[in-house]
Amino acid sequence: MKSKIISVLVVFISVHAVSQEKEPGMKTLGKAIVDKFPTTRTFDLQYEQLGPSNYDSELFGNKFERGRVENHSRFKAAFNLPFYASKSKRFVLTTSLRYKYESYQFGDIYNYTTTQTYRRENEDVHYWAGALTATYMSSLFKKPIIYSATVSVDGNEEDLQRVKGFASAVLVLKRTPSTTITAGVLVLVDPSSIVPLTPLFSINHKFKNSKWDMDFILPQRLLFRRELLENGRISLGTELNTESFYLNLNSSNLQGVYELNQLELKSGITYEYSFTPKLIAFVKGGFNNVVSARITEKGERTNRYVYDQKEDTQGYFRFGVSYNLFNRK
Q1: Rounded distance, CA 200 to CA 16, Å?
Q2: Interval 148-158: pLDDT, tens
Q3: Does 329 reside within a domain?
Q4: For residues 236 and 144, is the Cβ–Cβ distance under 8 A?
Q5: How far apart are CA 263 and CA 305, in angstroms?
Q6: CA nearest 320: which of 262, 269, 272, 263?
Q7: Average pLDDT taken over every residue of the chain
Q8: Domains in the chain: how many in total?
Q9: Does the residue 328 lie in any domain?
Q10: Does 177 fall in a domain?
Q11: 138-172 core/surface letters (b: 16 or more CB in 10 A; e: else)
């Protein structure tokens, strides 16, 4: 469920920019989305390196292992392409593809059941996803509103695993030259979802007589941002990220396909630089706190987990480059 909430926020927060125009159009919507979420641009590549950390885990509610992850890295690639737009430009269909590769290198691991210490082989995982999104812009109570619906499929190197869906509606509650407030609702079409409906809320505020602005999106981010140097921007704050992938397991306790869902709270600094209107790069770093890391049977709700892991705070560094084919200025 967490991954769907974060994904729909891409459309949700775009209302900030849309609401500033008297006759907002899909072109404005697109610019707002890609400005805040690099992964929504035409092409996006990211690499992340996380520092070493210790962990302690439970299996079926019993102490299982404690150990150390010596090295953990992620590579992500994304592709997005709008392939249909109505004559009014208020209805758009977009296709998206995602790929992720994660690599783990382990140190010593202690097993509570056998009371033995051993070494685990390095683990590499692959994850892919494809989606079709329909977005429609309209007005309600004389205020801009955006409707969005997405159908997605995902899997690993073994096979296609799941089909998911969700829809959202977001309305501008307030708009002034300095402040925009929006609210909406997310509807989840997924048996693994704990709740079928999720409220959405955001505030964007430009401080008076200052170059700084605040970007708050519940529950995804709280950032303070300002322009820095020519064609650059710096951001300070905290973001909530989700990571997930599928595991094909064949052990005495776990057999079949399982899902790992991890919730991370990243705090630190980001610097973005625009080489051209279409080519943008960024670097970011700080501290990563793993709020939750659980494994469930495929399609099961995350509160029905079989494996739970606690992990120490670790440092992280990420850089990326993206290319937006349709940006002209």
Answers
A1: 13
A2: 899 999 999 88
A3: no
A4: no
A5: 14
A6: 272
A7: 85
A8: 1
A9: no
A10: yes
A11: eeeeeebbbbbbbebebbbeeeebbebebbbbbbb
